[in-house]
């Protein structure tokens, strides 16, 4: 398995183009199941996860053609069974459930795998389908769902906020008979992007971006061309990288209003953050000051930036309290950061980080996508050579990471495991 060798200790300076959002692209790709017309998605990042989703769509019978960052889909689905071998590699595969059920009245989707950050059940997805009139059974590791007379509109009340379950419910309800209401829906920018694309395909959705989404069912969806929003988590990762390496980065194709919670905290740590229409500039002012964070659904601090922020707090002036409220097992980066000399104590969902003057080089291992990139950021602050193994996780979510960081002064080299 590939590793990454990093010579750190240099400030990152320069310009980075932010790619399309992985977490927006994955549900948007599933819309290829919902129309036989041509659906063109632009700005789709070339990542292991988006490629996996394209593969899953091909399995379902969709013709998928990629040219650079443009993915064209046509034909709709002819096969309703998403098997274990395809689904286990990526949890977001469960997003085919809503579209298949809505369009074809049946779906059989393996229970998903994905990042090992907690148990991550799919009960909310299932309850949403049931709320729209589907009969759902769990058998042999599969979700088997049926709505032989089509889905019917209804009110789906989520007991907790779930991005994926909101997306599945949204995609299913656009073709349900009558009106639907999703209450306590996720408000993430990726949900807004999905609703915008669905509306461009003929759906009638209002209220996206708030916690109550209203959908008036339509009989079918047509083709459209849609550009995926930029990746706020990628932008946030580089923003933290600038702040913790005493750097100066301008992140193009990124919108500050999707990252308010992070940018506010970065200002608190002493960085100067300037936002313009389509770019964010982060200029560090020496060693960062410590700050506390609590992860929350949007517009709160994103759980997908918690590991990166913790890496920054490891070298901050003072102590930081990091509280993770979304996933119960999302501190897997902690033992690895400890190996680099960090001072972190974990008690349940809370990590207390006491900033050190510096971390030291150590061989470390990546455990999930965001944990992996937090180790890259930590290594970028360290004078000397660090080696991170099992970096295949990075390829799931960061497009051209080495190239983008390399252009800004970082020295990274991919190494093949012996
Ligand atoms: C999405 C993102 C992921 C991000 C997460 C939270 C994608 C492809 N992935 O994941 O990067 O970290 O949102 O912002 O967009 N839950 C249940 N039952 C369910 C579904 C979820 O209990 O049926 C729980 C989860 O275990 C978790 C919480 O709800 O504790 C939020 O998870 P959710 O928002 O669903 O995350 P994902 O959509 O899987």
Give every kind of bound small molecule, once each. Answer: uridine-diphosphate-N-acetylglucosamine
Helix proportion range:
25-40%
> Count the helices. How many?
14
Shape estimate? elongated
Class of the largest domain in CATH? Alpha Beta
- Say what the CATH topology of the largest domain is: UDP-n-acetylglucosamine1-carboxyvinyl-transferase, Chain
What's the total count of β strands?
24
Straight-line distance between termini: 8 Å
Q: Describe the strand arrangement of the main beta sheet, using strand numbers.
A: 22-23-1-24
Average predicted local confidence, pLDDT: 94
* CATH architectural category of the largest domain: Alpha-beta prism
Which range does the strand content fall in? 25-35%
- CATH homolog superfamily of the largest domain: Enolpyruvate transferase domain
What are the segments in which pLDDT stays under 50 over at least 5 consecutive residues? 114-118
- The radius of gyration is 21 Å
């Amino acid at each position: 398995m590939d590793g990454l060798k990093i010579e750190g200790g240099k400030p990152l300076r320069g310009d980075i183009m932010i790619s399309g959002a992985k977490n927006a692209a994955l549900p948007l790709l599933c819309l290829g199941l919902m129309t036989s017309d041509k659906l063109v998605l632009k700005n789709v990042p070339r990542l292991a996860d988006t490629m996996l989703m394209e593969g899953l769509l091909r399995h379902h019978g969709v013709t998928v053609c990629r040219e650079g960052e443009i993915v064209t889909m046509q034909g709709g689905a002819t096969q309703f069974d998403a098997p274990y071998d395809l689904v286990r590699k990526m949890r977001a595969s469960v997003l085919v459930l809503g579209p298949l059920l809505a369009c074809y009245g049946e779906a059989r989707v393996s229970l998903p795998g994905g990042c090992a950050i907690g148990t991550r059940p799919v009960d909310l997805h299932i309850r949403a389908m049931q709320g729209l009139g589907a009969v759902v059974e769990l058998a042999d590791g599969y979700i088997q769902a049926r709505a032989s007379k089509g889905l019917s509109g209804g009110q789906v009340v989520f007991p907790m906020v779930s991005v994926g379950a909101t997306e599945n419910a949204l995609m299913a309800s656009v073709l349900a008979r009558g009106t639907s209401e999703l209450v306590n829906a996720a408000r993430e920018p990726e949900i807004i992007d999905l609703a915008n694309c669905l509306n461009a395909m003929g759906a009638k959705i209002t209220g996206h971006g708030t916690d109550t989404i209203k959908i008036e069912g339509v009989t079918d969806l047509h083709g459209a061309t849609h550009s995926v929003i930029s990746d706020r988590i990628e932008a946030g990762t580089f923003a933290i990288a600038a702040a913790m390496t005493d750097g100066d980065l301008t992140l193009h194709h990124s919108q500050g209003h999707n990252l308010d919670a992070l940018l506010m905290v970065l200002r608190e740590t002493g960085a100067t953050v300037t936002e313009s229409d389509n770019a964010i500039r982060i200029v560090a002012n020496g060693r960062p000051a410590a700050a506390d964070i609590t992860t929350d659904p949007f517009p709160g601090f994103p759980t997908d930036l918690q590991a990166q922020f913790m890496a920054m707090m490891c070298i901050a002036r003072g102590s930081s309290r990091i509280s993770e409220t979304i996933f119960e097992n999302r501190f897997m980066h902690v033992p690895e950061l400890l190996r680099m000399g960090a001072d972190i104590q974990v008690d349940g969902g809370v990590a207390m980080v006491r900033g050190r003057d510096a971390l030291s080089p150590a061989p470390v291992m990546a455990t999930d996508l965001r944990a992996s990139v937090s180790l890259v950021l930590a290594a970028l602050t360290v004078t000397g050579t660090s080696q991170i193994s099992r970096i295949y996780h990075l390829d799931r979510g960061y497009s051209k990471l080495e190239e983008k960081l390399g252009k800004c002064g970082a020295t990274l080299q991919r190494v093949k495991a012996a």
